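hey
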């Protein structure tokens, strides 16, 4: 009953509705990257290009946002422009969904928020840039992204370039292990770190083939093991940045954030913007490249999952 009531809050775009009717798999996309992760007009242009990558692979993109008191699954060009230009979209995670829906204000969904909405819409695969995690000052601030708890409870696969390199990736992986979230890697043994290909940590399992990934995921869920799966794939080598460079810039940006009293939800957008400025825009080009690559990997997985009804132990 609760699920039916929640699904009544959904508005599916015409292309998403048509894809569902035709049995074509859907791939969810977040909207925080549009409203808070990139500047205009690169944000909207990238969103359209990522959607095109997914369509070209044979799946249908479903960008998620909160508009006029509804959860929109799939956005029009005008709605993408609204998110990209408004400057007033709330960042919407689990705790924020009721407030933004009740107020009918504009909301851009985070990883956690998008996972919830994707699950309500019956979408199994979600593509993002990098997941949130345990922040570097967590022993003092207790700042741990809600993305990690959502991965522990919501059965959606999150395809990403690992965790954002501004985080404590070792502690992030420990947290995921504690909560039973499998971390898969594709194309390399190492867990990726957003701007850089290698975080210095290994993923739990390496599965390069989409059919093998789908079989793993189906068996997990067929066993009744609810919760998400992280599928990490590295930024293309030509666009990658060096780990030492990013670590140094991150430390500088974190010190500046602390000096300016920036905390909570405002930290990640500040760090991304500051690193973009410090790299002369190179980090933005890297961000765009990794999101497009993630979309390719996610679309292939969605197609493989659609062909695989069960894991068939």
């Amino acid at each position: 009953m609760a699920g039916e009531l929640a699904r009544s809050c959904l508005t599916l775009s015409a292309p998403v509705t048509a894809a569902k009717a035709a049995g074509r798999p859907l791939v969810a996309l977040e909207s925080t990257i549009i409203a808070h992760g990139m500047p205009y007009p690169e944000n909207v242009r990238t969103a359209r290009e990522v959607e095109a990558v997914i369509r070209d692979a044979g799946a249908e993109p479903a960008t998620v946002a909160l508009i006029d008191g509804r959860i929109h699954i799939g956005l029009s060009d005008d709605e993408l422009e609204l998110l990209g230009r408004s400057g007033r979209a709330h960042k919407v995670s689990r705790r924020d969904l009721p407030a933004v829906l009740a107020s009918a204000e504009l909301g851009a969904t985070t990883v956690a928020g998008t996972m919830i909405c994707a699950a309500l819409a019956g979408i199994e695969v979600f593509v993002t840039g990098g997941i949130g995690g345990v922040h570097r000052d967590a022993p003092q601030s207790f700042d741990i992204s809600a993305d990690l708890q959502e991965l522990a409870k919501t059965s959606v696969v999150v395809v990403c370039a690992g965790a954002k390199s501004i985080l404590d990736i070792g502690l992030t992986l420990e947290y995921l292990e504690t909560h039973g979230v499998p971390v898969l890697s594709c194309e390399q043994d190492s867990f990726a770190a957003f701007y850089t290909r290698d975080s210095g940590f290994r993923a739990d399992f390496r599965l390069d083939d989409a059919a093998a990934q789908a079989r793993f995921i189906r068996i997990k869920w067929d066993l009744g093991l609810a919760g998400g799966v992280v599928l990490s794939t590295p930024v293309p080598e030509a666009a990658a940045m060096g780990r030492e460079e990013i670590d140094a810039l991150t430390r500088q940006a974190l010190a500046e954030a602390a000096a300016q009293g920036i905390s909570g939800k405002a930290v990640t957008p500040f760090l991304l913007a500051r690193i973009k400025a410090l790299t002369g825009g190179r980090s933005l080009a890297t961000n765009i490249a990794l999101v497009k690559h993630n979309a390719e990997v996610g679309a292939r997985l969605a197609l493989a999952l659609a062909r695989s009804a069960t894991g068939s132990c």
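The first strand starts at residue 10 and ends at 12. The chain has a mean pLDDT of 94.
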